[in-house]
Amino acid sequence: MKSDKIIVIFSFTKEANKQNRYVSRKLSAWGYVCEGYTTLRLAGNEGLKPLDADMKTWVGGQWGKKAFLFIGAAGIAVRCIAPWVKDKYTDSAVLVMDERGDYVIPLLSGHMGGAVKIAREIEKAVHATAVITTATDVRERFAVDVFAKHNELEITDRQLVTRISAAVLEEKPVGFYSELPVDGPLPEGLVWCNSMGELSDYAYGIAVVEKRRMGRQVSQDTERVQEPAGNILILEPFRTCKVTAGIGCRRGTSGEQIASAFDRLLKEHHLGVEDIGKLASIDLKKDEPGILAFARESHIPFYTYPAARLKEVTGVIEGSEFVSKVTGVDNVCERAARCCSPKGSLMQPKTVVEGITFALVEEKKTLTFG
Predict the structure, then answer these.
(1) Angle 115-126/14-28 helices, nearest 10 degrees?
(2) Which of 133, 164, 189 is at the close of a domain?
(3) Measured on CA atoms in the order 191, 197, 201, 207, is the torsion positive or negative?
(4) 228-238 pLDDT per residue, tens
(5) Model's pTM, two decimal places?
(6) Contact by Cβ (8 Å): 225, 207
(7) Which domain holds residue 75?
(8) Is residue 318 scored above 80 in pLDDT?
(9) d(CA 144, CA 171)
(10) Residues 90, 153 within the same domain
(11) Could you tell me the CA-to-CA distances from 108 to 74, 95, 216 in Å, in that order?
């Protein structure tokens, strides 16, 4: 799980402990994993874990792995995290909140760590006012580091990130080129370029390209190309496709059984769970405990469709009369995967692994600015 989805919440008074439990409950409902801690003296009747170790040392052991919310004075947070602060690319997200829940402030790693996003989530969840101080956020301007994090792009030059952010704030146009498709218009300040060469017309440029294109040799047969100019920030996708997995199983199949079979299937395709963007099936399975447990543990969104909708999917070769009698459709997994990702290409037709049917559809990654 991403570090900004695991939030450690510290509180130090009875009133703050109420906020701790309230925020934890709200954020947990939105997919965050919250760990609530308070002092040893108050832990007994407050429903929170006691922090029986030195807090500063304990935070150091979790640094970069989890986000931290301190409900109390900002000074407590600053003194606690001071020894561990390095840079915004590796630091944990750190926020502070007053015990009445009036304000929440991102203190550290607002963009790459996700502190600003968490503050906005808390603002919506508990109606606390998020106090944002980052210039690009305050002025609602494009932030290249946020864009990279949101789209799972690797930043190749951190200094250029700072310079490009400054150029955007100074209202200087920045060229933008991408090998991947882009959904929606470009944000204010970016200018679309049809080639890498056009980026040289601007003081700074951003190029989203695959690693093989930038001369980072993948195999002996990979063609090497000239490295870009020093004013062009290269953003490289960690993965260029997302995979949708269709699934069908017998009633009562456990989450452990599904996880085991799914792991075998992914290994055959040299994939990991992080490559799976969606899980899909027929709506008869929308309450299937095993699938729900697997989806929850793997943090994969689960979508279901009625049989009538699945029947509309064309090009499915293999079908089963027995499955059709039970579900109303001859092939659940492949139809569901293709229904969920209609623009994708079939990577794995219906296959049976340990008694569970799967199909995989690969969909080209699309960049978004949201």
Answers:
(1) 100
(2) 133
(3) positive
(4) 668 999 999 98
(5) 0.66
(6) no
(7) 3-133
(8) no
(9) 14
(10) no
(11) 12, 7, 33
